Amino acid sequence: MMDFKDGKREKTIIKTALIGIVTNFFLAGTKIFIAMVSNSVALISDAVNNLSDAGSSIITIFGSKLASKMPDEDHPYGYGRTEYIGGLIVSVIV
């Protein structure tokens, strides 16, 4: 069972996902700029791929936040399975 008092795992997931989001937005912006200058459709599609990767990282953050919620009356075992649902959504996006 997940230890809800130790937020180290959640903090690591969020930190890593935020680095991924920032990096992917930077890459997408750079690729879109170069694509506009060079008129390259391939670079635009690669920039869209970077944006979808950033979206996947956002979903990972939400899944991690939900999974770390404390158990309540409706969910006595917690919300840990929401992380699996987030992973499923990310796999469909990829």
Automatic annotation (TrEMBL):
Subcellular localization(s) per the UniProt record: Membrane
Pfam families attached to this UniProt entry: Cation_efflux (PF01545)
The Cation efflux protein transmembrane domain, residue ranges: 18-93
Entry GO CC: membrane
Keyword entries, A-Z: Membrane, Transmembrane, Transmembrane helix, Transport
A Gene Ontology molecular function term of the record: monoatomic cation transmembrane transporter activity
Transmembrane segments: 12-34
Domain of life: Bacteria
Family: Belongs to the cation diffusion facilitator (CDF) transporter (TC 2.A.4) family.
Protein known as: MMT1 protein
Species whose genome carries this gene: Campylobacter showae CC57C
Lineage: Bacteria, Pseudomonadati, Campylobacterota, Epsilonproteobacteria, Campylobacterales
